[in-house]
């Protein structure tokens, strides 16, 4: 097959994956949920009503994340309404958690959860650690948070496609190299489909470190975080390993960043994909 023929074949495969995932697959929640979340003029009452249109498991996870240590239970109080959840997490993060968890439930493939865990870890390291250390604005911090989650969404789409349409997947001849080379294209389609910010396309498309006048670009912050996460997942059985001080029983240390990150993993149901080590443990071998 010549180059043009090969490109056409790839385009048809990607188009089929997108068509089926976006238009044929039911993610298990009312599409009105995103209509309301995408509408800047939605009222508090309209947003609160959405909780009856989302599965109980997903709803519980969203409340868990909003009330996790990192998102401010100790500093800002517990959230009790869905509107407060949205206000604390933001529209984009809420949408992505709903989609990730729906796809994981739909596929039943453990690989979806692994990619989700890797994406979640990338998002947290990029936004809660690197962005904070660089002194990024709130707006830029949110961009790398969502960019980290979206970085491998195309891979999740392919796994769901493989689970639900095994014959089509086999006929397409999709292999690991295809996924590596083309998952970003599906990610760009995903951004369009679900009305995420256009600037996220640059973040998920970046292939190399890019510098600004003084600091790295947002895309590079996400790439750095992803590289750290990928290293940990490859070497420690799909786990993010963090050496971090922990709160102590005597109350001398009541909060640590590592503990807060662990709480977020637990809240979203990914506790088996993170492990905290006391810094002293890292010197014992």
What labels describe this entry?
285 residues; mainly alpha; two-stranded parallel ribbon; globular
What topology emerges from the helices and strands here?
Layout: H1 3-24, H2 32-38, H3 44-49, H4 56-66, H5 73-76, H6 82-89, H7 91-107, H8 110-134, H9 138-150, H10 153-164, H11 166-172, H12 176-193, H13 200-205, H14 218-235, E1 240-243, H15 257-267, E2 274-277
Parallel strand pairs: 1-2
Helix pairs in contact: 1-10, 1-12, 4-6, 4-15, 6-7, 7-8, 7-10, 8-9, 8-10, 8-14, 9-14, 10-11, 10-12
Please describe what this structure looks like:
There is one protein chain. This protein is mainly α and 285 residues long. Helices cover 65% and strands 3% of the residues. The protein is built from 15 helices and two strands. The protein has helices spanning 3-24, 32-38, 44-49, 56-66, 73-76, 82-89, 91-107, 110-134, 138-150, 153-164, 166-172, 176-193, 200-205, 218-235, 257-267; strands at 240-243, 274-277. Strands 1-2 form a two-stranded parallel ribbon. Strand 1 (240-243), helix 15 (257-267) and strand 2 form a beta-alpha-beta unit. Helix 1 (3-24) packs across helix 10 (153-164). The longest helix has 25 residues, at 110-134. The mean pLDDT is 89.
């Amino acid at each position: 097959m010549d180059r043009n023929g090969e490109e056409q074949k790839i385009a048809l495969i990607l188009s089929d994956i997108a068509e089926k995932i976006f238009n044929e697959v039911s993610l298990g929640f009312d599409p009105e949920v995103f209509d309301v979340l995408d509408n800047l003029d939605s009222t508090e009452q309209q947003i609160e009503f959405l909780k009856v249109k989302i599965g109980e498991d997903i709803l519980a996870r969203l409340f868990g994340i909003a009330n996790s240590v990192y998102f401010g239970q100790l500093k800002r109080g517990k959230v009790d309404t869905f509107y407060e959840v949205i206000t604390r997490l933001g529209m984009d993060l809420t949408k992505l958690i709903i989609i990730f968890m729906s796809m994981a439930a739909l596929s039943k493939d453990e690989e979806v959860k692994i990619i989700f865990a890797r994406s979640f870890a990338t998002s947290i390291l990029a936004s809660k650690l690197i962005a904070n250390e660089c002194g990024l604005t709130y707006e830029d911090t949110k961009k790398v948070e969502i960019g980290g989650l979206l970085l491998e969404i195309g891979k999740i789409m392919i796994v769901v496609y493989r689970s639900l349409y095994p014959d089509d997947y086999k006929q397409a001849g999709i292999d690991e190299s295809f996924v590596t080379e083309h998952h970003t294209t599906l990610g760009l389609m995903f951004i369009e489909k679900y009305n995420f910010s256009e600037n996220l396309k640059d973040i998920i498309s970046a292939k190399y470190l890019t510098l600004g006048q003084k600091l790295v670009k947002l895309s590079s912050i996400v790439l750095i975080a992803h590289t750290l996460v990928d290293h940990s997942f490859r070497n420690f059985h799909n786990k993010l390993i963090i050496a971090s001080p922990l709160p102590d029983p005597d109350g001398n240390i009541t909060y640590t960043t590592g503990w807060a990150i662990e709480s977020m993993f637990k809240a979203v149901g990914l506790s088996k994909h993170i492990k905290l080590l006391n810094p002293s443990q890292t010197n014992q071998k």
